[in-house]
Structure prediction request, 178 residues.
Amino acid sequence: MSHNVVSVNSNQPDLSGVISSPTVYAEIRIGGGNLSDDYDQSQASALNNATLEFYDPSPTNNISNSTITSSSGWISSVTLPVGTYILEAAFALTFSASGQFSFQWYDGTTSRGTRAQIGGALSHSTESASPTATLCCTLTSSTTFSVKSTSGSTNLNTVANQGSNCSEQSYIRIRKFS
Prediction:
């Protein structure tokens, strides 16, 4: 009879069957928590068909050779080295009336991954999507990513009228797997 023959990432279980495995990914975390700044303090000039900015004056970055592009704590892009990644982004904003808003990861001008959509004017039969934009990818060269809104969003408050909602509830999480 054999016991504890299962291993996970080459880690063997202890006598009680518990497998202790070190974290197998490095990550970048931007936003979330108790951060707050008005969106009109960012470099953003528009919300429809535009690069979105995420607020974090001290983002977590333990992915070697990656770069976070920011100005006054507002982050517009992330450059990642060769590797395998999961990128996630959520963006919260305010509407002037019932509307819709969509956004997605971009590699330059090319959209990548799943498109996220939020708002009260979505048709759930044809436009339902996750409120989180997600991208799984393997990079063979250093690549710069940003989160951009798509055209066709409706009834968005202006950048000047967004207040701190964008900084308080929006985030980016990137995990690199070894």
Summary: The radius of gyration is 19 Å. Residues 23 and 177 are 9 Å apart (CA to CA).
